[in-house]
Amino acid sequence: MKNRLILTACASALLLGLPAAAPAWAKAPPAAGTTAQGGVQVPPLGFHKRVLANGMEVYTARDASTSNVTVQVWYRVGSKDDPAGRSGFAHLFEHLLFKATKNMPSETFDRLTEDVGGMNNAFTADDVTAYYEVVPANHLQRILFAEADRMGSLVVDQKTFESERDVVKEEYRQRILASPYGRLFGLFAPETIYQDHPYRRPGIGSIEELDASTLDDVLRFHATYYRPDNAMLIVAGNFDQAQLDGWVDEYFAPLKRPSTPMPANDVKEPEPAGPRTATFYAPNVPLPAVALAWNTVAYKDADRPALTVLDGILSTGESSRLYRSLVYDKQIAAQAGSNPDFAQQAGNLAAYAIMADGQTVETGQAALEAEIARLRDEPVTAAELAEAKNELVANALRGRESIDDRATTLGMALIMTGDATAADREIAEIQAVTAADVQRVARRYLTPQRQITINYLPASDANAPSEQKKNVDAPVTVAALAPAGPVAVLLPEAERARLPEPGPEVSPATPAIADFRLDNGLRVLVAPTQGLPLVSARLNFNAGSAHDPADKAGVASMTANLLTQGTTTKSAPEIATAIEQLGANIGAGASADFTNVYANAPKDVFGRTLTLMADLVRNPAFAQEELERQQSQTLDGLRVALSQPGSIASQSVGRVMYGAAPYGAPGSGTVTSIPALTRQDVAAFHAERFGPSQATLVFSGDVTPAEARALAAEAFGDWRDAGPAPAAIDKAGQAPAPRVVVIDQPGAGQAAVVAAIRGISRTDADYFPLTLGNTLLGGGFSSRLNQEIRIKRGLSYGARSSVGAQQQTGVFSASTQTKNETATEVADLILEEIGKLGTTAATEAELAPRRATLIGGFGRSLETVDGLGGLVANLALYDLPMSDLADYAGRVRAVTAEQVESAFAEHLPTDRASLVIVGDASKFIDGLRAKYPNVEVIPLTELNLDSATLK
Hints:
There is one protein chain. The protein has 32 helices and 25 strands. By secondary structure, it is of the alpha+beta class. A six-stranded mixed beta sheet has the order 3-4-8-5-7-6, sandwiched between helices. It has a six-stranded mixed beta sheet with strand order 14-15-19-16-18-17, with helices on both faces. A six-stranded mixed beta sheet has the order 22-23-21-24-20-25, sandwiched between helices.
């Protein structure tokens, strides 16, 4: 996909935190909402279903509370259907479907979505390829026209095919080669877990098999699978049902159902014949890893709910068994978890551990096996069972917040089961799971005889990097694909079917914000919404990493991390258990300027959630043993981050731009500053900066101002400041001279390229002109950077830029990752595009869609309680008036081309730009040095993030 999620490959990486889904659908009456154990009701998805004569299924759900609509088309074809010798083909094809049709030039989908304030994307998983858009409701007809047109015709020429194939190769390098655990979870795990099923092939493929694909393969794949009887159309949002039905009949009903059958693909994965072990080696692996996997069941199997609850008990949250045992108690793993992968035809459950520094995979394997044995040998406790269920149900509620979430939940249920009501039944099925069920499935599936052990170790002179399996046999062959048929071409403009005109605009509504203070000075803001019974709270403090004492980088971040690790009356495990019993999300994090403590919970338990949150903030214990645990985990995390080009670059840019000033130090700390932190350091930081008069509490969601006032008074009303507010400091300092810095990482899978310029504060008068210009430069798929680097040249998976405004002078940055050999070319392209915005006025034709992009993203943020709360909190953090929430769209619309040009010329001239490039310098340094004779090359082994010069 354009920002593609390869579900199986990435799920574990996401869990590791590595940089790395209104109406019950059918003719039956709507199902009653399911009530969780705590009393919160999860409403049914709701639907109306019809089937067209050509076999296409249509599901619609109206929601008049939003100004948007989502259109999704789900095709029953995924990476399991990649032809033999063409692994990664379904994903490559997904990229190509964003190109031209007979009636629409290339990139029209971005014009129809991004340019009107919407978004579009797609994903390829084992069993499905899905395309989705969210647009203002008045653009619904245009999106239906476009989706029907690309189902009926695909126009791809050789040049476009080769360029997009290059983009996918860069995605492969970024996700697989440049990520330290990309090979493990993206390549080696699936190829080891499955013996016969095509799920064993990676969804992203391989460079060699991508190169083997041809344009004729593309056309035949489209003819084979992209047909109405293999598709489901899902529409949710603000629309008129009769009008929608008419448009569907107009655009989709005429599409013909082909007479040719689709290739058979229903491989049965054999039962394991015995345990298996495989060991793999890879470059730039900072910590060894081990994974244990078992073949389990397909998604629609009756045992899936019990296995899902088992997985929750095993690894969801800090009270889970794996975290408690391997990370918290034994401290042998930096991270541990499990991933249940239930696909359409088969499934597996994998438990993994990224070992702590100095620990072995053998130790990890023994610890994982011990926890799995516990599940087999004794029933889980009633408390564990309740926690897992509450978390699953609360997450199901959160998964129904937005129209696109609800549509995606429906689509996945349809792909996996063929039954639209499955997602609603799943909640009741989860609640029906017993401790005996969990033990039964553990004994049935998670046995030593069925166990697959995967060891993942750093490559060395003695152990060369392991090779990916290629040309793996598959049930579908290129020869079995349908003939390509007549080649479609883009019609002359006069002959094309005209795009429908947009309908009347439906404007997003912003809630009135209640604003008051408690007697102790705590500011309280309330943004009430009508919708799901969810409430969010954010408590923000003027306590960012820029406030870290000199030579103690990481204090603010460590303080935030320790808030959930024990109070004067509760231990860290007791806190984790309490959070999970509530089905809540509670946590904290520090940015450069502020610390944010957050909570999100179903309304029926929100009072208890806020009470717990207040205890964490007001009464942290900062126990020495918890500090030492967090130091160890942070150091392991830094070791992982410092193995990835993108992370290395982001941690280094601050020093290049700010030197020794407070904004320059890495907020997460360094490998030397973290071990030196003391309990006194974090306790003093908390005492100085965490108090009611320096804080703002923001409520959003299903809460009234009166309810919020009572909740705030009960939780925080008797809280008092420990002392006077600390004095303001200069965080940015004087600007250092521009630098060109290369951090040499031999063997890096890609090069990370960052151009950075000292910019503005959030309250600067040029914030909106720079924000609009940034959106044109690098704020979406249609941005200039992405057009030049990805779409025209295929040099990257994506390029982006950020204004980076902070409380004081921030850093504007533009970045991407590319193969090492093209790092210099990409750096030149980035600087050229930044420079253009300060010397040549953008046209109104360019700026109008960028305004819509900003306003549309703002409108989508209003649809979730956390999104709304974040908008309100950000205004408060920078002392901006709450009226800015309602005024946002007007302020964006008021920006002119002249203001954008002037702001870029004044604040972001490229002669003040610095470059930071992290990669294998041997592949690009000569060309870079020819352009920048003063380039500084710092070997990664000598990088010193404590130093203002990085040396």
